[in-house]
Amino acid sequence: MAEEVKLFGMWGSPFSRRIEIALKLKGVSYEYIEEDLQNKSPLLLKYNPVHKKVPVLLHNGKPIAESIVILEYIEETWKTNPIWPADPYERAIARFWAKFFDDKCGLAAWNACWAEEKEKEKAMEEASECLKTLEGELKDKKFFGGDKVGMVDIVAIFIAFWLRVLQEVVGADLLTPEKFPALFKWSEELVGCPIIKENLPPRDRLIILFRARLESSK
Amino acid sequence: MAKSDVKLLGAWSSPFVMRARIALNIKSVDYEYQEENWLVSKSELLLKSNPIHKKVPVLIHADNPMCESLIIVQYIDEVWSSGPSILPSDPYDRATARFWSAYIDDKWFPSMIAFFWGQEEDAKKAAIAQMEEGLVLLEEAFGKCSKGKAFFGGDRIGFLDIAFGCFLGSLRVTEKAGGIELLSETKTPSLSKWAERFSSDIAVKELISDTDKLAEFGKKLQAKMTANN
User: Fold this and answer.
1) If chain A, 218 residues long, is cut into consecutive pieces of 10 residues, what is the mean pLDDT of each piece?
2) Does the pLDDT of residue B3 top 60, yes or no?
3) Could you report the predicted ipTM of this complex, rounded to two decimals?
């Protein structure tokens, strides 16, 4: 039976790009459908009625939403190039870090960059604490996954790419080589990886997006 | 497996700890249980095993600590693979179970928390409304997941049953506190019947806490947090 894989995504969304990277790393062919988040398509609303968000993966007509759920599904369905660890304990640890990232880090870093003056210091502190924790976990590994890019790297890619663009636009110095040397080096390695770099949003387009948001918030 | 190989740090009042214990029960794992009196103080072992969140449950297997209840449940399912399966075997069904479990943790339970800590009537009413909305979704999800059988997982308790069922005690406390019915035969007929089956399941029933005892603990928690602020 011919396999039909579709991905509803948004070019600038790190959650959407996670899925693209995972599919590309596994050599899975898919049809990409770009969503205008200001004007969501009836199909998106049909396939993700609970959250109405991207990404949504459609596999042979069946929709899956929530990026971590999708990443688990992709790993279980397409066995080439595993991105999760094989050992159950290491997998539990990887899941822990993916969850930690999504529950705390990503949001903390995002908020720190957009925080108003009076909340800036506290938000920056919170974000720094998260980065410090990640730095501690990374230690002297090349990637969170070890020698190879793994799930946690893909989940945390917001820090490696989006944050670095964002902090430039808003003038925040959250992730610097002085403050977080291991994490900074990791970010360079990760976005330099062949399949990864081809599947990140165009830097200048992202800058325009962030600048527009900055202007509108003034 | 030697009893000392598996240790669970927990708290009787925690629905998250209950998840891990149900999973261990399903797999008939012999384990050492350490009750943490976390309102008073946290043990050295807890702080060492979960330095980031400092919370229960923590599962320590052959000296390897891990935390986050649903991650623990998945680990238990994967390691004790000869026992009854907790996650469904089909990848799409697994994705569905994970999706709803994430919904419960990220959206539904937080509205219960909002009700618990809410100071004003409006906030409490809004929290209840959100919980009710969520229960409508879960009632529908039950229909799709159970496929006519007794549990979300089918004939036997599975991942989503555990993820949601652990909150039945807190749900009853909330109903009493708010003078409302959340799970009922009229509003949520399938979930109502499921709740009874879940609570009487052999892997679950010894872990059910008395509603009044839970409510009293809740009051202690509220008092302590208020005193701290």
Assistant:
1) 88 97 97 96 97 97 97 97 96 97 95 93 96 95 94 97 96 96 97 95 96 90
2) no
3) 0.95
Q: Provide the shortest C-alpha distance from residue A57 to chain B (in Å).
A: 11
Check B71 against A100: CB less than 8 A apart: no
Using a CB-CB cut-off of 8 Å, the residues of chain B touching A133 are 52
Contacts of residue B102 in chain A, CB cutoff 8 Å?
Answer: 66, 68-69
**Residue of A57, A99, A102, A131 to mutate, testing the B interface (most B Cβ within 10 Å of its Cβ):** A99
Q: Nearest CA of chain B to the CA of A50: how many Å? A: 8
Give backbone dihedrals phi and psi of B117, rounded to 5 degrees, phi first.
-95, -10
Helices (H), chain B: 15-26, 44-49, 69-79, 91-103, 109-117, 121-146, 159-165, 168-178, 189-200, 211-228
The distance in angstroms from the start CA to the end CA of chain A is 54
- From the list A62, A66, A133, which residue is nearest B92 (CB)? A62
B75-121 confidence digits (pLDDT tens): 999 999 999 999 999 999 999 999 999 999 999 999 999 999 998 99
CB count within 10 Å of CB B153 equals: 22
Q: What SS3 state is found at A163?
A: helix
Compare all CA atoms of chain B with the CA of A75 and give the residue at the minimum distance.
B91
Which pTM value belongs to this model? 0.95
> What is chain B's mean pLDDT, rounded?
94
Q: Using CA atoms in the order A193, A199, A200, A202, what is the torsion angle rounded to 10 degrees?
A: 120
Q: CB-CB: which of A69, A92, A93 is closest to B98?
A: A69
